[in-house]
Amino acid sequence: MHHHRRFTHFFNLFCTKTPLRTLPTITPSMHLHQHHRALSFSPLHRHPPDPTPSLFKDDPIAFLSNSWVDNFRHPNATVTNLSPSFRRLDLWLLAYQKVVADDTGSYLPRSSVPSSALNDLLSLRNAVLDRRFRWGQRLKFFIKSPKDTTDYESLSKRKIKAILTTTQPTPFQDKIVQEVLLMILEPIYEARFSSKSFAFRPGRTPHTVLRVIRRSFAGYLWYMKGDLSTLLDGMKVGMVVGAVMRDVRDKLVVDLIKDALVTPVVKTEVEKPQKKKKRKYQKKRVLAEDEPKPDPYWLDTFFGFAPEEAEKVPNWGHCGILSPLLVNVCLDELDKWMEGKIKEFYVPSKSDVIWNSPEGEAEQGNTSWPEFVPTSGPDKTRKMDYIRYGGHILVGVRGPRADAASLRKQLIEFCDQKYMLKLDNESLPIEHITKGIMFLDHVLCRRVVYPTLRYTATGGKIISEKGVGTLLSVTASLKQCIKQFRKLNFLKGDRDPDPQPCFRMFHATQAHTNAQMNKFLGTMAEWYRYADNRKKIVNFCSYIVRGSLAKLYAAKYKLRSRAKVYKIGARNLSRPLKEKKGQSPEYQNLLRMGLAESIDGLKYTRLSLVPEADYTPFPSNWRPDHEKSLLEYIKLEDPKTLEEQQSSIREQGLVSPQDYISMLVWNYKRSTLPRDQLSFVKSDESTVGNQQLLVGSNQDEDDRKSNEEENDENMDAAQM
């Protein structure tokens, strides 16, 4: 290990600090004439110069970070020249590392990339720049995968015909070009995308959609759902290229995307031979040396619970991983159009309890309880909101149903003109909130509640009153959960679901099976994290999984019934069932001494063990963490920010956050009034320090207050 580290360190120093030079080659004459003073030198090979030294000097991560910062600093600028980015070989090397990791399942360090692969990568980059690259090549490659050992020059005609006429995996070189395009184009478009779209974007998940709905959709009465997922199957090339050219006018990028969409994809499948009868005892399949491991059982099972809105992933032509980005580029026009309609639709009403300001940016109701909307009169504010997840949209309307119907008509006309998509009233249904709206396998509904409202009146008195209003409820759909379990053969029946044994885990040990199912249950609990009925739905999942494993163990260990399994293995199946060891009194002693195998019991077997729903407040102007960091960095780089900070320090002085918080708490305790403006006075030269915070300006008046007034003030301060 130490020798390997020394060699790696020496190799890095050699590649970064010494110029590339020809290596000495010992000739046969040296063995005969060892007394000669000079050595003969000859080049090692005639390939192009090794590009390794320049690769170790350039940092692709720093370049991409600067690209994100520049695009977020100027989000409306049109990009016209991306050729310098394509010429950077360090980007191509980073793309090569990512594709190799996806292809082989192991990370390849930069120092371990062979020189032959670097030369092939250089030839691929030059082919792209010279317009010699063609998508979907089957026999001629500029670069091949490290695990591809096929000699394409010595193939028979039958194999060549099969390669050319049947469905084949995406070529390795195509994946590299797709990765480079994605790394260059993603920061450009992410800075321009609407905040109303959430699918196929970094930092935006289905959980974000549910939290936005809970935060902003509580006051809407009519909901309109739209399914535009047919656009994810494919769009006309002219539409896609036109959408790309709105912000990117580089000919190389446009031609690459156009060729990827136009080049036909061969999808003819080979005739499958008749399946042989399965043997009773099948041997376990051994993976190849470089074959990546398949997804574990718990993850494969969880993927079966993908909601309808997140089930379809676009794949256009030879675009590959670039397809989701192109979908958002095309549908961004719809997002911007809907944002304009939101501004046009807004008509405030002073008699309404929410959204009654002319600006439309006032906070909705109680910010700490955004799901609750107090009862209002018949005259309501006309307002709408919109959200899109992939090819599915959700529109909320506050106002009469006629306004929602008018908006639907305009939306149908826009989709027909822009995307040539024929929609009708059935594909865009308008439903009232009381009927329940399904989105991302969660049901949005409303119920009337009578909460006790407490507030502090003048004089410090706390008043409690009974209120009435509506509460937006976001609950997980039990019907959809049962449907997904039935599709995965975990149960049968609708009204009285009966768990079925999962025979895929028949050959696994009890400890491994329990561990797999615990991971699955933990993932399900995280998926239903923001559902109001999280405890109920997760406990139901645990019941199905526990019953399925009990039937599996009953068949595996010949225990005849689930009751027998629970008697030996306990309620959470944590005791060993093999040879009925769980019933032996010595098992606990052996387990305590570490002589018996520890088996983890199943999670969430009781309702009290399931965590509560997450009601963490969600900000109205939410942004993903990476976008907030970018905007903060841009703000700090702006010289105006430094000037503002310097002027505020001159006026108010410099105070640490701890001192500022202490000052606020002290002022609340003394006078129950917040003092946001900090004041400083210069003390005498004999005093220690240059400035002193004034927090006791009302001290004389406070000392004269009676005990009764101080009690009232303490109550007021606690309430505030």
UniProtKB/TrEMBL annotation:
It comes from the Eukaryota. SUPFAM superfamilies: DNA/RNA polymerases. Residues 689-720 are annotated as: Disordered. Pfam families: Intron_maturas2. Residues 474-589 form the Domain X domain. InterPro entries: DNA/RNA_pol_sf (IPR043502), Domain_X (IPR024937), GrpII_Intron_Splice-Mob/Def (IPR051083). One of its GO terms (biological process) is mRNA processing. Residues 689-698 have a biased composition (Polar residues). Transmembrane segments: none annotated. Residues 709-720 have a biased composition (Acidic residues). One of its GO terms (cellular component) is mitochondrion. This is Nuclear intron maturase 2, mitochondrial.
